[in-house]
Structures
1.
Amino acid sequence: FDDTELNTVYFFTVYPNTIIRKYDISEPGNTILLFEYTDLDGYSFLVKNGYGYLLNDVNNYQNLYILNGLYENTPYLANTIDHFSEYTWTALRSYNNYLGLFYCGHLDETKFFNLNDPLNPTFAFELAVPSNYAYPGIYDDIFFTSTWTSSYIYDISGNPSGILETIDNINGLAYIRSIDFYNSGENNYLFTIEESDIGVFEFSYNHSVDDEILNQDNIILNNYPNPFSTSTTISFSTASLRYATPRQAENAEIKIYNIKGQLVKNFELRILNSELIKVVWDGKDENGKQLPNGIYLCKLSVGKEAIVRKMILLR
């Protein structure tokens, strides 16, 4: 399954042979086989943005095979990364722009690889306390993992790297089978489906990406509408600037980042007088490409002052 490709579904069969099938399901009752791929063996497979990632055990380690051409229904092997994992019995999952590598059944490493170059995943970070019993659940870049009796919580916003430390944990659980979430108004709920119980936890959070803000009370930044579907108007008043010199105020800028801290759009502003400044963002990046739904961070910088506002793109 690939959430960027509509009306299609992928099936992956391990035994007795490795088979990858893609179907067109746009017409109910008239499923069409688009391709069947049998050239490689493997036991964990996922599709992300038109690329297929297949893990295969080879002499007590694992190779990663990367397929291209899935959207065109002509899959082919585009790259092989030998010794991608030093452990067997691992599995792949995707989270936003990361490829997750999970070690099933024993407490070893849980690693994440950046997919900026989809043909060459690069190591980004690993968890200080891995998840070894159920796959992690993610809620707005907050990871809830599971060991035998605890759920450890991580914040993966802001392009983390290296060993990622926990921000909190929940103890006293009993063999978590799966994790799920529910939102009601301003309340966030975590459900832990355990061996013989269901745990319900209310939680709140602040992303670490907001820590860089200098003086949020000094300037006022707004955007309307929020959430927005086609465009939003970002505005601030120069009358609220306290510490910027006239020269600094002349060269203010608004930068828009995705939730991972990657810059997607930049507005350079020329401020000549005390006035209300407005810019319109159409949800596209610097190249005019429409960005996906999600949370974006709008950062206004003027002189020594800066403020960030969260915006939600929802079509």
2.
Amino acid sequence: MKHIFRKIPNQIKYLIGNFLILYIFLFLFRFIFYLFFFKTNLHVPRDIEKAWYIGSKFDLRLTLIILLPVFFLIIFFRKKIFSKMIFRKILLSYFFIIEAGLFILYVTDFGFYNYLGRRLDPVVLRFVNVQDAGTNAAMVWESYPVVRGLLIMVIVMTILYRLHRWAYRHHAIRTAAKLAADPAPTRKGSFGIFAVIVFILMAGGIYGNFAYYPLQWSQAMFTGDEGITSLGLNPVINFFSKLKFREDSFDINATRKYYPYIASYLHIPHP
């Protein structure tokens, strides 16, 4: 096992290290949700475990989607990833921006769930408009610990930045040491094999199902309980997957056409 691990290129190890950092980051948010926000009327351990399982697959999908650009960057610039300073800046900036955005979305999700009892969805965009910006900002300031949240965000982002910086520096040093010990270039075939394996694993993780259809947010709704459903969802994926439904689909002409039938069915005395 150790012999196989040693053969893995440092670029792939770097990708695996960042995968662990990101996945644990998302897992901690799920754990916080479970500890402080999760409520259910169906105290069935098997259902809760299934919700955790489905939720962890959504977290895995999000982690792998975030890592896809890093994977392709490694594929196309394998030899330069650890030798050019520009790639260090690109990678550290990318992870910092993505994780800062995730932090904000997850914290917004906590507030959204606490207020409406469901995970973050495009309804939140109704609160983001120029006309009501002052009112909404005042409501957030008065209702939530904004200063404390910003302080926690600074601490968390500092820790994450240092972890990603350590991962980059660690594998850059190991790559330089390997080149110094063996100046001959590594075989492309070996790197290609590992790259194909990683790509297949990432594609499988993003697909998320051992079935014909990929993992869908509706699979989290295997019970009628809103709490268990919420535990099985990932708020970021849930938000973006429902964006296409954000516009109201009210059709005035269809309403006028079918109103008499509905009024008759409901026995409305004065339609």
3.
Amino acid sequence: MDAARLLELENIFIMLKNEGKSFEQIAKLLPSVNKNILKKWDNAYKNVTEAVRKNGSQQINTIITGKDVNGEYLYNNKFRFKIFDQLEAIKFELISTNFRNAQLESFRLEYLKYFEQYFKSISYKNYTYDPVLGEHDIELDCVLTSDDPMIRQKSNDASKFYFDYFLTPRMILQNKILITNLSKIYCKGNNFENILPYGIKQFKVENFHDIKNISIENLNIDAKWIFLTGENSFGKTTVLQSIALALSGEQILDFKKENFAIEYQAFNEGVILNYWDRAKFLFFKHLACYGASRLELQHDRSNNEIGEKSSLLYSLFHSDGVLLNIEIELYLWSIEKDIRFEETVALFKKLI
């Protein structure tokens, strides 16, 4: 077994350890790896984990995600935030947010001073939000340091500002989050030795064209192909469109009620993309999309038309997509001695 394959298998070993599987379970899932090698990996993983625990910060949670080609461990660092009471949380949000709108920004700075100077405590309770009607309500309790009527009025304005521009958008977003937690990893026949670098684990769609609600879970991440079968106009392309939108995050339609979420495995890390959680959205870079219609070659087209009709998702949503002519690119790369020429030629040779 060569070094590259051993590295692949050790990264799978690390992934399974992070899943909480025991040494004995992993030995069964990686039958081609000698047990002495597995023990070596296990000891190294324990030593590194212990070193990270001893040297780590209380504010940072460090997870081993794998090894690189040089045999160095890779880590994922996530901040732990201390638990604030509601008043501290409000002040923290107001301090760490900036509005592009000048008027809202002036309100933020003004009301922050009121929360800092005149509030002893504040409690938002019994929050309700109706996503259909767009109506929301809340019960508010607060203790102030002053009985001055003007200060009390300004303090009420400050509370309403936070409710309208911070709390309500967050509650609306929570109603749009379709996938919250990472799911378990599944492989057909527990054949973890053949998993791919990327694999879809689950996806969910709501109110998209004729799809009211669909949820497909527990997909095997070692599946090289996933087939959708059905009669014409049954919705296969719609499902593909929803997956593409969930992975890319592109807003190519005037979405109002539509919602998408997807979870995939990227090497040793699980990734969740909720379409409306724009602050946390990281689009999937390795995506190619093609629709059911036959694509036209790019010749006899204007550059603007080629650019528009050959974009990532265009042919999946339209019937007049343009297929880029790789011969032109290869010719240019060859003249410019671009490394992509040799890489692409090598890929074609491997393919055929």
4.
Amino acid sequence: AMWTYDVWAPQFARIVEIAREARLDLLLVSSAQAAEQLRGRVCPPCEVHWVPEAIEVEAYPGRPWQDRTIDVLAFGRAYSRYHAAIAAGCEARGLRYVFQRFPTRADFSQALGNAKISICFPRSLTHPDVAGGISTVTLRYLQSMAAKCLIVGSSPADAPAMFGYDPVIEVEWADPVGQLQRLLADEQAAVAMTEKNFETVAAHHQTRNFVERVNSFVAAAHRPDQRQ
């Protein structure tokens, strides 16, 4: 059995080759779309299933909402279209917009826990040449939810199935800076959303949940009555 993440459409041929060469009976991937598409490509008896990424919420402590000093945080790979749409407007309206890569994990964790809004877009939007149309919940979404940031951006295709609701506030492209201002002004609604997201990740998408899912698929794949 093998589990892997960051499985994008341009890599499918190589993943199928690895599964064949390793004689895998079970291939687990972090994207629901990738799992669905790979099922029709790998050779039996290899099964393909979706097991999303997971985190430990304790690794991303967050400050109380009213004590956070970063209004908007963008980290890691950026979506240049959105950055261009808000950078000047945030500065003009007095919103602290931080966009950077952090030198250490501690620096990143501290900044995330000090941010009210975290900007998250799927790789299918930020780097379509890499993703090849695969839209999935990557670690940045889980990190932002664990740190109790409000997530603004675009929701990955597998988010509703993973969370049971949409945890992302979709960008209002007609007035993106005004949207940020409105979200920041409504503290009660923002905190309620961040708490809901945190509780969902804490209950269903931590390492222990990941291990349970993997073990369940492994056990099912190796039951005699499940093999044809």
